[in-house]
Automatic annotation (TrEMBL):
Active site (record annotation): 270
Superkingdom of source: Bacteria
Species annotation: Streptomyces indicus
Region feature (Disordered): 1-25
Protein name stated in the entry: O-methyltransferase
Residues covered by the O-methyltransferase dimerisation domain: 40-110
InterPro entries: COMT-like, COMT_C, COMT_dimerisation, SAM-dependent_MTases_sf, WH-like_DNA-bd_sf, WH_DNA-bd_sf
């Protein structure tokens, strides 16, 4: 195969650096931009570098590809070619001796970087692994079905449950957002007035911990899968919240414990199609009864009318889920017998409050 992508250095152009000679001159910028958007080589090189822990291997200073290959377990020539490409994209620096070093951009590949991109890029992590199923987007668009099971032979959640280490890292990654979002969510509502809340699908308890810290009169429970519920118990013990917080094993598709003032669904519904999301809301509505509240916490956009299209495609391919606007959430909730009470802004998130209709 000798022809390059149009706009990215092309057979047929006079100098080998532009679109085919037959393309009008004015189309070159557009073709180049489209070629950049469609490129898979650079995204996969970045992900491969993150998975190989190239950033960590460069902590001690510049190294040659041969030295790096010995550290990360790679073929020296193939690694050199990949790193040279990343140097051309300013992810790495390459000196006259062929040694590589991190740039400011490349430093974000480090697992300990504050930007927390590594779990998204590491192909061995739950999210990085799931992102590879985006190659099945065509299947999802044609059928409306998730692409993840087509690639891996199981749903995202069943696949995750087979690897405890990956599950633990996923829970940790999900909880890191709470470091920023937790205080905003805690300040968005008078959670203490509810007495007790249950965080349905609440992971390792990071959000509930933030709520309890901000509202000393509040008590709460996390409901999640067995391993995750145990992680929440460990967190509550470490945070000295054992008297105010507990965790139970269960599924939001089954009957939920009654008697809580609030039922919290934080970044849950976007993982599911409408039928499943409705089933979850119905379980919460049943348990909340006439006096409880149901809180859906999602990134619905600043005005409640826009969705994040890139994440929306991920939800489609991973789960057949979707990002929803406030209006779409209200419509689903209405089918579950709930009405919207208020939408409480919480930074990029919104806390949508529902009550029995």
């Amino acid at each position: 195969m000798t022809a390059d992508i149009p706009g990215g250095g092309t057979e047929g152009s006079s100098d080998g650096t532009g679109p085919p000679a037959t393309a009008p001159e004015r189309e070159r910028p557009a073709l180049h931009r489209l070629a950049e958007l469609a490129d898979l080589a650079t995204p996969m090189a970045i992900r491969a570098a993150a998975t190989l822990r190239i950033a960590e291997a460069l902590d001690g200073g510049p190294r040659s590809a041969r030295e790096l290959a010995a550290v990360v377990g790679a073929d020296a020539d193939a690694l050199d070619r990949m790193l040279a490409h990343l140097a051309g994209k300013s992810v790495l620096d390459r000196d006259a001796e062929g040694r590589y070093a991190l740039t400011g951009l490349g430093a974000a590949l480090h697992a300990d970087h504050a930007g927390d991109l590594h779990p998204w890029l590491d192909m061995g992590s739950a999210v990085g692994r799931a992102d590879l199923s985006l190659v099945e987007l065509l299947h999802s668009v044609r059928t409306g079905l998730p692409g993840f099971p087509l690639r891996y032979g199981a749903s995202f959640w069943d696949d995750l449950a087979t690897t405890p280490d990956r599950q633990e890292r996923f829970d940790t990654h999900m909880s890191r957002d709470i470091g920023t979002d937790g205080p905003l969510i805690a300040a968005a509502y008078d959670w203490g007035s509810l007495g007790r809340v249950i965080d349905v699908g609440g992971g390792n308890g990071a959000l509930l911990t933030a709520l309890l810290r901000a509202h000393p009169e509040l008590h709460g429970t996390v409901l999640d899968r067995d391993r995750t519920a145990e992680s929440a118990r460990i967190r509550f013990t470490a945070e000295r919240l054992k008297g105010r917080a507990d965790a139970v094993e269960g599924s939001f598709f089954d009957a939920l414990p009654s008697g809580y003032g609030g039922y919290v669904l934080s970044s849950i519904l976007h993982d599911w199609d409408d039928a499943s999301a409705l089933a979850i809301l119905r379980r919460c509505a049943e348990a909340a009864g006439s006096t409880g509240r149901v809180f859906v916490i999602e990134k619905i956009g600043g005005d409640g009318a826009q969705v994040r299209t890139e994440m929306d495609l991920r939800m489609l391919v991973f789960f057949a889920g979707k990002e929803r606007t406030a209006a779409q959430l209200a419509e689903l909730a209405g089918e579950a017998g709930l009405k919207t009470v208020a939408v409480h802004p919480a930074g990029a998130l919104a806390v949508v409050e529902f009550a029995a209709g």
